[in-house]
């Protein structure tokens, strides 16, 4: 499988070799995957290069009842899926996959750099001490809820669904009708099925809730998110999501969260 837009067709006549040789600012290099930022013809891109995780890592994941991430295909398919349901995400400009041996498979994906954006984790971090305007707050929470509901309703779950993986376009004024424009990123572990299993729906919802517990949420904020999420959730499921979010918070931060009031 190989896809290159016109710019990369010209720049990468031997795309797999070019991806391996590409230099840039390295963000991650671990477990057979390297992520870096680079420039081509004065445009900025991100490259994720997968060079095989080895049979040891595959077997370890399977023994832990986890599906191993073998390459860039997950991210490629997830980007295509989100665009098809009109949920903001990255734009892929190059993708390649070569080899049948899952332990040594070579693959890459190149996406446009989402410049002039800020993660919601950073954008909202001071909300408890410096609350934003009520209308701005409502619009942002509603948009996150809507995107989460569309994603889950279409059969896709993220698996790392936190505020840090929503990027907000800072070029759009908050007074503009199109604000907020958000992009979901870091899709290499995403899963797509006919329907999201209960376990993974709870994991995603607990993740986004956990990551928002320090921004001063109110019960009205939570209710607005659920209203815009639109998918039915029983009281039992909501309790499960809440307990899992609290457990994540205790584990990662070592203290009790301040729950919405």
TrEMBL record:
InterPro entries: Kinase-like_dom_sf, Lsacc_core_hep_kinase_RfaP. Signal peptide: none annotated. The active site is at 160. Keywords: Transferase. GO terms for biological process: lipopolysaccharide biosynthetic process. One of its GO terms (molecular function) is kinase activity. It comes from the Bacteria. NCBIfam families: PRK15123.1. This is Heptose I phosphotransferase. It comes from Sinobacterium caligoides.
